[in-house]
Amino acid sequence: MTTTSAQTEDTARPGRLGDPGRTLRTDPRSDPRTVEALAPFGLDAHPAPAPLRPDSPRADQLAYVAEAEVGYEALFAALMDGLPAVPGLEHHTETITGPDGDELRLYVGRPAGATGPLPGVLHLHGGGMVVLQAAGPAYVRIRDELAATGMVVIGVEFRNGAGALGPHPFPAGLDDCAAALAWVHEHRADLGISTLTVAGESGGGNLTLATAIRAKRDGTLGAIDGVYAMVPYISGIYGRSAGERAAELPSLVENDGYFIACDGMAVMVAVYDPGGAHATDPLCWPYHAAPADLAGLPPHMISVNEVDPLRDEGLAYHRTLVEAGVAAGVRTVPGACHGADLMFRRAAPDLYRSTIADVHRFCGGLQRR
């Protein structure tokens, strides 16, 4: 009798917590439009196990991540292919000197002919801090859609831990984001910016939160008026056992393999932080920040997706912000896997528009600190 009751309770749990064989396609919570959009790429089912481990030779890890970058870029290009350009915008590129003498490109977009200061967004792209580029089609689209709502949006081409813009492990990418923030803050008047929000998704969500923590430590927090982190990739605990992950952040098991998987993320962690020396450093993995690290930060918004492995770390960070006394909001996008509300402009335009509108709402409601 006890066994039957326990089994019934277990199968009632969501996702793979209740049924280890469940996939993004078979999970009843999944938005079917996003599932069908991923199906041509074989991403509606569980991905093949990662061929490497976090302790594999670094050269092999770098090659694996570089190959993954090619696949992700092709996926995002296909998802954005055929969309008409966002009208009514003007663009230019600024090239500044990065903290290590590197060239740091900033892609600036704004409504054409706009007069008067507009809300500004410093956008940090996703890719686990190790792959992808701000110049990629998905991130160009996101920035343009944000700019079209009446904002000045600046994309940062920071150094990655691997791939075409690597290999530059932590803290190189964060250093670049801090340098970009300082430059944009200094040139607010030239750029026509009123308030400035640091925003990003996934790995860019990590860098968004870390940039704010670093600004506090560096005494430059006055440069940031708000922080908006989407589906933030911030715990770094993806290589732990399933039992440990389920106990600390259940979504890492519940939704594991729904578009992204913990074994692959664990390799990316090792590439970003070789040897794990910064495993609990909030600048590397903001999930590990204590309330004292966050006290005094500007208003935050945390956006998570229901069937994303990373959901619970975003929610946990929101709780820490609230405990620290930071003005912080949170939203959950129903039925969405990791990044779905920013990937499927064609398949699920309402999801896309909702997130773009919420970023604009948050940024437009800020006041200069």
From TrEMBL:
Hydrolase is among the record's keywords: yes
Region annotated Disordered, chain positions: 1-34
Protein name: Alpha/beta hydrolase fold-3 domain-containing protein
Alphabetized InterPro entries for the sequence: AB_hydrolase_3, AB_hydrolase_fold, GDXG_lipolytic_enzyme
Basic and acidic residues: compositionally biased ranges: 22-34
Lineage: Bacteria, Bacillati, Actinomycetota, Actinomycetes, Pseudonocardiales
A Pfam family that the UniProt record links to this protein: Abhydrolase_3
Keyword set, alphabetical order: Hydrolase
Organism: Pseudonocardia adelaidensis
The Alpha/beta hydrolase fold-3 domain, residue ranges: 121-340
Record carries keyword Hydrolase: yes
